[in-house]
Amino acid sequence: MIATTLELTAGLAAGVCYLLAAITLARRVNQAKPITNQAAMGFALPGVVLHGLVAYLAIDTPEGIDLGIQSSAVLVTWVMAAFVLTASTRIPVASLLILVLPIALVALLTHLTGDSSVEARTQLSPQLALHVLSSIVAYSILFMAACQSLVLALQERNLRGRQGIALIRLLPPLETMETLLFSMLWAGIGLLSISIISGFVYLDDMFAQHVVHHTVLSSAAWIMYAVLLAGHYYAGWRGPRAVRWTLFAFALLVLGYFGSKFVLEIILQGQ
């Protein structure tokens, strides 16, 4: 399905807003000014509103509910941007916008310039809606956790090497950043648990040929997240080990969800 005129207009406007917000934050970093949500709110807030409209139009199409890779990416990145922007008014996560906004911009441009070949669903049962919603929010939060781990890794490396002190001073203390990371991981694995359980309970066959990779890789990611959280709770795992486990687990999750969708919708549909 090709993007409508309204989608195209809103998407391009959202992209411009995101680009301006990212430039604003990058300039503050270059000028050694604190990274606050107020700095990006003027551009990022209208961008999030317009992005939300694009996400709605991309999924709720005249043909039915489109849950293809492009529309899903638009929705996931909208949840990320909206969550970070809202959370930054209370907790110090505004630095994540530097990573989240460009990712959201890429998702928007990919959707606007692509053509989804997935067949839209004419209806969505409450059970399937629960599975889809919990999956999307879980992926969004765990995506943010992966971004947070990258920021944490950069911060810790600079502290150990006594480099980039000016940049480090713009970020919250290392302990605060680690606390935020594990808070995201706890929330993400909780929602991922709901997604996996609802899939086994309500879907016909979670091990059918076209979804078996998704099931196995998502379950493997859940195990990695669970081991990391248990290691943190009982053995005090943190620092580079936590970053590695977070990124490896998220890589499995991406392969399980977007990887399987890419194969089914792009590669196999093209044959």
Give the number of domains.
2
Strand order of the largest sheet: 1-2
Percent of residues in helices:
over 70%
Rounded to an integer in angstroms, the radius of gyration calculated over CA atoms is 19 Å
Count of separate DSSP helical elements: 9
The gross shape turns out to be: flat
Number of strands: 2
Q: Report mean pLDDT, rounded to a whole number.
A: 82
- Element-level helix/strand string: HHEEHHHHHHH
Uncertain stretches: none
Structural class: mainly alpha
What is the makeup of the main sheet? Answer: 2 strands, antiparallel
Strand content: under 5%
Distance between the termini: 19 Å
Features:
77% helix; 271 residues; single chain; mainly alpha
Fold and architecture overview:
The protein contains 9 helices and 2 strands. The chain is mainly α and 271 residues long. It has 2 domains: 1-116; 124-271, no CATH class. A hairpin with a 2-residue loop joins strand 1 (60-61) and strand 2 (64-65). The chain is flat, with a radius of gyration of 19 Å.
